[in-house]
Amino acid sequence: MKTTFNSIEQLPSVAKQLLQEFPDERFFAFFGAMGVGKTTLIKEICTQIGVTQNVCSPTFAIVNEYTDLDGEPVYHFDFYRLKKLEEAYDIGYEEYFYSGCYCFTEWTEKVESLLPDHYLRIDISEKDGTRTLQALVMEG
Asked: What is the pLDDT of residues 85-111, one digit of tens each?
């Protein structure tokens, strides 16, 4: 899937399109420069799956846990502050990554070697105010 958007008002339709095109995916690995809109899109996806808590970047906590419409956990990671891969081990990443629950990761490149064999890779780039999103299922 590839789409472009240039306003925050378009995010609900982008999130809806992602969820419709990849209905069985639960692990969303986001890649993109700072300020490109990763957290904002994750907030919108969470809204679409029924999260009612305040969704914010877990920059300091590394992981935030929310609850979806069905009462299932939703995990949101921000690995920006990770200084070494061992810190991901310290938070018990495997329990989250392999839970079967929704997982959204930001600054995924810092833990790329730990990703499951199957995940949805979402690359967001920006040029002249227009953002391009490309989503692709990755297999082992």
From this structure: 999 999 999 999 999 999 999 999 999
For 65, residues 6+ apart whose C-beta sits below 8 A from its C-beta are 73, 74, 75, 76
**Starting from the edge strand earliest in sequence, which strands make up the sheet with 118-127, in order?**
2-5, 130-139, 118-127, 27-31, 102-106, 73-78, 63-67
Residue type, 49: I
Predicted structure pTM score: 0.95
Who contacts 47 (Cβ-Cβ below 8 Å, separation ≥6)?
12, 15, 55
Residue 81, helix vs strand vs coil: coil
DSSP class of residue 55 equals P
The CA-atom distances, in angstroms, between 133 and each of 18, 71, 92, 94 are: 10, 29, 30, 27
110-119 pLDDT, tens per residue? Answer: 999 999 999 9
